[in-house]
Amino acid sequence: MEGILTWEDFLHATPDFISSGKKQIYDKMLSEFLGNLAMGNSSFFSSNIKRNEHWRLFDTMRGNSVCLDIETNGYNPGAGGYVTMVGLYNGFDYRCLIKGKDLTAENLAREISGYKYLITFFGSAFDMPFIKNTLGVEFDTPHFDLCFGAKKVGLKGGLKKIEKHLGIDRPDGVAGMDGYDAVLLWGEARRGNQKALELLVTYNREDTVNLLHIADKVYQALRESTGIDEYLYAGA
Length: 236
Description:
The protein is an alpha/beta fold. The protein has two domains: 1-39, no CATH class; 58-224, Nucleotidyltransferase, domain 5, CATH 3.30.420. It has eleven helices and five strands, in the order H-H-H-H-E-E-E-H-E-H-E-H-H-H-H-H. It has helices at 7-12, 20-39, 42-48, 58-61, 105-112, 127-135, 146-152, 159-165, 179-190, 194-226, 228-234; strands at residues 65-72, 83-89, 94-98, 117-120, 143-145. The protein is elongated and about 70 Å long.
């Protein structure tokens, strides 16, 4: 509208579609947003932008983002459930915290403290509540939940189904595995089966690392759905 595509455009514009009084209010609000963005204060956006709009920050915060996926023992937190491992991937390195080895609330909190943006698949409904209820760790960063973002652009189904749709293949050793298999592998690992533990880590690594590839695709589809690219190309 009137060539306003960014927050800066709005601040420097004198649009006729709002009153001067409202313009001053919005200018103050956007100046605060820009200031927090410049300072890298991601928690500000977590509480001041609706969760279903957090995807809009992906391109800006990608360099400070972390993909996260957990495995569990198959039970709910109130019935003996616990996190068996947490996979973390920042676009370069994959890190896996394992129960009984290095998975503690302190270690997890320290690992995520350096990131400003969280990427999960169904994490807002499963991973985050599970971690909070079993480890007491909470996240205050903006959160791009790919499950709900994908649904907005017509990609339905679970993580593995979406991977196949996008042409993402898994290694033969873990292709076709699901969460139930992960529970069984953990049981084997607890009984001292090192190969089972290694396979479980490989499975989690695929779950975690592939999130970034999916995020790229879903973000671009969500961006295109706004019509902004079409507008920009039309005016080029």
